[in-house]
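hey m, so remember when u said the tokens were messed up on ur end? i reran from scratch. heres the input so u can diff it against urs
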Amino acid sequence: MRKKIIHFIFNLGRGGAETMVVRVIKELPEYDHVVVTLFPMNHWGSELQCSKLICLNLSSLFALPLAIFKFRKLVKKEDPAIIHTHLFWPTVIARLSVPRKYPIVTTIHAFITTSIEYKNWHVRFLDKLTYKLRKSTIIGVARGATNEYFSFLHLKPYHAHTLYTFVDVNRFGTGNTKPAAETKTFRVVSVGALRLQKNYLWAVKAFEKIKDKNIELHIYGVGNMQQEIQQQIEATGAKVILKGEVSNIEEIIPQYDLYLMSSSYEGFSLSVLEAMATGMPLLLSDIASFREQGEDTAAYFSLSDENDLPAKLVNFSQKSPEELKAMAEKGRQRALQYFTLPQHVTGLRKIYTEALGTAVA
């Protein structure tokens, strides 16, 4: 009989954490997978291959006591071997509700010192308190994220691992192709939800400064800042177009000349890994997680100098196709060497085996 894992996550939008859950489940057929969410959003449909999908249907985060009660009842009913939590609220709820005989594995998806969520004192307090009450195995998606979690919260590690986010090389790892339509416009692409951490308003401001240049940005994604970003585009005349959400992004990315990410903070960006594996030259904001991902295969711009990104965009537009291709290939080889799904799954299997050994009878 297969051992059961409960994967507990906020919802099933198309973010990095959600993508990780959906793709890992497919690669671990030796386990029975139950996915539990706090809220009903689900953008995955049949791609999610689990035996059960259960939503706790919270009305809001103010219903935290109800969520603790519901999840404790659910865990007792399902009797899993492991609970694997993703993101802050599912993790806190699990720590406060799960009986000690069930090991908890928690994935930290962000560098928390730069996370907007962790700027709230109650978030830091709850995370630190619940970890002390109910120690869990911690998986950081980057070395820096793992180390920072414990140092920032002043916690002593119980069991801690770093397991890099992965890219599906069968989907994205074919290498760059020539843009579908030859054009004199230097075309830049960004992929990611339209939310505050992606810092798209910084990118719009940069494109405002170079709107006399033949350089254009297309942003793929949806989110709660769509109206604000669109208004900024219209007010500034920046050559930026919001393209919405698509399902075939692996076919779209190679049609561009440069991949741009302007995030103010990230965990370990899946979008960046996908661009690397596809074979795109990268221009990224100079933050710790991007440096760990790209090292010397990407170019970086400052988030403290408004003129740095516009200047680097113009510089990239003047590079030869050979220069861009050479840079892209370095990034692609790095992605294939360090950030693949098989590497991630092998590491996760070992962590699950270790966690099962810590279960309390």
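this time it looks ok to me. The chain has a mean pLDDT of 93. if urs says something different then somethings off w ur setup not the seq
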